[in-house]
Amino acid sequence: MPNLHKVRKIELLGRHTFRVVLERNDFKFTAGQCVNIGLPGSGINREYSSYSSETADELVFLIREVEGGTVTPALMKLKAGDQVEVDGPYGEFWIRTPNDGRKYYFIASGTGIAPFHCFVKTYPKLDYQIIHGVRAADEQYDRADFEGGSRYVGCVSQGTGGDFKGRVTGYLTEKGVDKNGVYYLCGNRGMINDVYDLLREKGVGGTNIITETFF
Q: Rounded CA gap, 70 and 188, in Å?
């Protein structure tokens, strides 16, 4: 059964992207897992990975509004004190042995960066690199959270202001691939398919590539 969680605040990050901050209510999950969120009684929900850590005193979700959508426009209009239904957690997109001495590469598109933000907040000693594909520079949300931006590479496909001009596949092709690294991919299906194929072509073993499709 879904649980009701009260909204603490909605944080607008741009025209279409926002954070939903909820009261935790002792909700338990493993970093990387997702939940279903919907309006009470609507019978309609959508799946989102936690943006906040396992131990945070609130639940935070990074969401992009789908114009004409059924759920996200309604979530964007919520106010402090409103309630949402949270069902879960679900999924196995987690790190089995954090801090095991291996280098982790977190490759995301858009709001697919959410579980990786959760990872690094949950495991502060993790050795990692974020490679984030976005359309515009103003979509590089909270890059300072990744050790002041030193572990964040923004691949901006439209306009300037990123660390790399182009898609994440272009960055990986130009900079090269760590064959011994562990790669987590999260975001749109096209990006995941392209990056997966590229990594395999470069010699990364299939067991070292873990994927989570957002849309």
A: 19
Asked if residue 17 lies in contact with residue 64, where contact means CB atoms within 8 angstroms, the answer is: yes
What string of DSSP letters covers 73-93?
A: HHHHT--TT-EEEEEEEE---
- Show the tokens assigned to 209: 């590539």
Topology adopted by domain 104-213: Rossmann fold (3.40.50)
CA distances in angstroms from 193 to 176, 186, 200, listed in the order given? 18, 11, 11
Residues 68-103: tens digit of each pLDDT: 999 999 999 999 999 999 999 999 999 999 988 899
Q: Do residues 19 and 13 touch, judged by C-beta distance below 8 A?
A: yes
CATH architecture of 3-90: Beta Barrel (2.40)
Measured in residues, the chain has a length of: 215
Q: Where are the beta strands (DSSP E) in 65-208?
A: 83-90, 104-109, 128-134, 152-156, 164-165, 182-187
